[in-house]
Amino acid sequence: MTGFVIAMVAFAISLSKSRRIESLEDSVARTNAISPAARLGGTATLEQATVSTAVNDGDERGAGRRAGNIGMSLTWLSTILLGASILCRGFSAHRLPWGNMYEFSLAAGFAISISYCVLSVTRDLRWLGLFIVVPVLLDLGIATTVLYTDSEDLVPALHSYWLAIHVTAATVCVGAFSVGAALSALYLVAERAESRILAGQEVGRIGELAKRLPSADRLDLMAYRIHAFMFPLWTFAVISGAIWAEAAWGRYWGLDPKESWAFITWVIYAAYLHARVTVGWRGRKAAYIALAGITAILVNYFVVNILIPGLHSYSGVK
Predict the structure, then answer these.
(1) Between helices 257-276 and 216-249, what is the axis angle to 10°?
(2) pLDDT of 58 over the 50 cut
């Protein structure tokens, strides 16, 4: 957590000194020059950088780039340490280390940070680092202060090889969907600033943040690609959970709150993908659906696990 805190500060410094390679005004002009039909095909690309941390147009890089590099390095280091802590927990408990909410929270934080690190290998995402590290810190803070549980044996229902299959798939999806949600939220910021420019209005403070982000089109495309790539895995996680339920309780599906919320979450992300290719529902409306999806995951995790009794009531929280 110390490493993530320092990374957060470094990313904040880097973001404050970054700027768009393309101005907000140029981005609006370019977007307006693209026909709606062409935009449905996804004209934005991810190959070239859209945000620079250079303090000038030459090769010399300033404090923003150095801070971004420090933040990125510390994020990698902290992610590795977090992964090591999960392994140590498994060795301590002599089982797979995701049998209660504390352990799953560690795994979820690791999934979020490793998803960001892997994505950053092929493109410069230092501008996104602050919006990834903060949720990871909140997750780890809640895990260590509220959800901590000593190493104990699994409840009988979890003694299955499906624990490795189902929970691993769900954890990977939570990590990727969290990154997608961050991109969708930033899309709303960039889109609002660009809409104000198009309407001839002052962008205000929201424009200051938008100037440090890629264009709304690119943020929308990045979020869509992550959600589209991970949705089949989320579908597999729901199906594998049903198979596990049949092995543990003798039925594939019931009205258990956690199962119901898992299905609701699946429906929301299916609606997002449908909205993303439907005229009139792309962009802002689709971003709202993506944020509804991550909200459903959080409700399922915190509210259902802790407050609503059911067959999945093994959070470990005393």
Answers:
(1) 150
(2) no
